[in-house]
Structure formats: C-alpha cells, structure tokens
Amino acid sequence: MKNSNLLAYLFLAPALIFMGIFVFWPVGFNTYLAFHDYEIAGGATTWNNFANFKHIWEDELFRQAVKNSLFFLLVVPPIQLFSLLIAKLVNNKLPGMTFFRAVYYIPVITAISIAGVVWSFVLNYAGMLNAITSSIAHLFHFIPSTEMIQTDWLGNPSIAMYSIMLFTFWKGLGYYMVLYLAGLQGIPSEVEEAAILDGANAWDRFWKITVPMMKPTILLCTMLSTIGALKVFQEVVVLTSGKAETYTALFYVYDQAFKNFNFGVSAAAGLVVTFFCVLLAALQFRFFGEKQ
After folding, report:
1. Any bridge partners for residue 156, and if so which?
2. What's the rounded Cα separation, in Å, for the pair 223 and 268?
3. 159-169 pLDDT, tens per residue?
4. What's the pLDDT at 189?
C-alpha cells in the first residue's frame, strides 16, 4: 500500500511542482504584498496593516472599476443560453455539422490580440457594423440612402461596454458550446426516446429532460463564465485601452502594479477581485448546485 501511495505521488509530483511555482507561490506572495508597502528597488517591504485595502476602499476609480466588472456579468446569461441552444443544434446528426462545430470554435483558438484588432475595424466609424446598420436603415427608409450611420461603438461611453460584451460573446460562444455538447452526449438516448414515445414534444423534452440532466454542466459553464466576466482584462486592453467607461477591476490591478508601481495596492485589489469570484462561485453552488 505504501509503495502504491509513493508511486501515485511520483506521478503527481510534476503537476504539483508546476502548480506550486506558478499558482500557490504567486497567490501566497500576492497575499503577503497586500499587507505591505513594497519598494521595487531592492524589494524592501514594510508592514502596513490594512492601509492598502483602505486606499482602494477610498479610491473612487476602484469603486467604478468594480461596478464596471459587476456590470459585465450581464453577458453571462445570453452567452450560456445561446451556447446551450447551439450545442443542442449541432448535436443532431445532420450533414455539415462537423464543419459547423469547427467554424464556431475558431474564435476560441484565435489569439485575442488578433481578434481584437479585427473587431476594432468592425466597430470603427467606417466598419462593418455601421455598414450593416446603415443598410438596414436604408431598407426600412429610416435614413436617406445617401447617408451613413457613423456610431463610435468603442468611443461612446454609453455603449463601449456593450461593444466589449459583444466581442466576449462572440469569442466565448464556441468554448461553452463544446462543454455543453459534451454534456448533451452524456445523456442516454433511451431517455429521450422514451419521452418521444410518451408524446413529449421537442420543447417539453428540452426543459424537462435536457436541462435537468445538464444541471452539473450548466453550473460549471455558468461559474466559469461568471469568473471570466469578473476577470475581464485582455478585451479591454485590446479594444479600448482601459478608457474610463470600460475600466474594470482587473485593469485597475494592472494599472496600479505596472504603471503606478503600487504593488501593495495592486495586490490588495487582486484579493478583492478574487473574493468576488469565490463569493459568486459559492452562491452558484449553494443555490443551483443542489446535491450533484
């Protein structure tokens, strides 16, 4: 038995070492920095109790950043709903479904920097989105055919965050579709066949069979999407460079560390973001996890 345990730990050792260096140590050091004043020259630290947390609590910019990050959670329900519906669609054995799955997954494997540059062209004044909305407006005679809609989708404070949400929706749809597809393929076909024999229509089968049996997958995807929304950063950097209306909590962490060199304040803000992630994940498990 002891030899078996030793062999198991030997197999686990590479992963544990990797996690220790790149996960546990950074988390521990970040927690340490959150309660210290860190000087980049020489790395000297001074214990300051909760001064860093007091600083971010009184910082209006941080409060606005947290509000923006919480507002970004609005993207979670639509991305989960559409991912599940598309997964249900591509789960059918129809011609071209393999190609359809691959097409939907392409945005997931596309580097966010490349995708962001493409979308910045789509969302600018002369971009595709304005061209499409102008064509629709011309079709229904909302505007003269000689005029064009020129909306600054990324520069307008009232819609900039929605534009980033749209980009996030497009980028993550394929990822959650694959997870939902795996969950759908784990449902025994006999269950749905029995429901068909009992006269259940497609709508009833979806809500009374598919959704209940997919609850563990739905919980996982919703939790991952929620944490991803709270940690939104790369999208903001690539599309708006952190303008005030899109300044998120994680962008505040980055700003404080690498622009202002306030590493203690940055670490404290990072812990607050982590707290929100853990809290929302715990609430989702509490209210939607049941006893899976």
Report:
1. none
2. 23
3. 889 999 999 99
4. 79
Could you tell me which residue, 38 or 177, shows the higher pLDDT? 177
SS (H, E, C) the chain: CHHHHHHHHHHHHHHHHHHHHHHHHHHHHHHHHHCEEECCCCCCEEECCCHHHHHHHHCHHHHHHHHHHHHHHHHHHHHHHHHHHHHHHHCCCCCCHHHHHHHHHHHHHCCHHHHHHHHHHHCCCCCHHHHHHHHHHHHCCCCCCCCCCCCCCCCCCCCHHHHHHHHHHHHHHHHHHHHHHHHHHCCCHHHHHHHHHCCCCHHHHHHHHHHHHCHHHHHHHHHHHHHHHHCCCHHHHHHCCCCHHHCCHHHHHHHHHHCCCCHHHHHHHHHHHHHHHHHHHHHHHHHHCCCC
Average pLDDT, the chain: 86
Picking from 41-45, 80-84, 150-154, which range would have the lowest pLDDT averaged per residue?
Answer: 41-45
CB proximity list for 216: less than 8 A, separation 6 or greater = 183, 292
pTM for this one?
A: 0.85
Rg (CA), the chain: 24
CA distance 108 to 189: 29
Q: Measuring CA to CA, how many Å separate 97 from each of 8, 129, 143, 174, 177?
A: 41, 28, 39, 14, 13
Partners of 47 in the β-ladder: 36
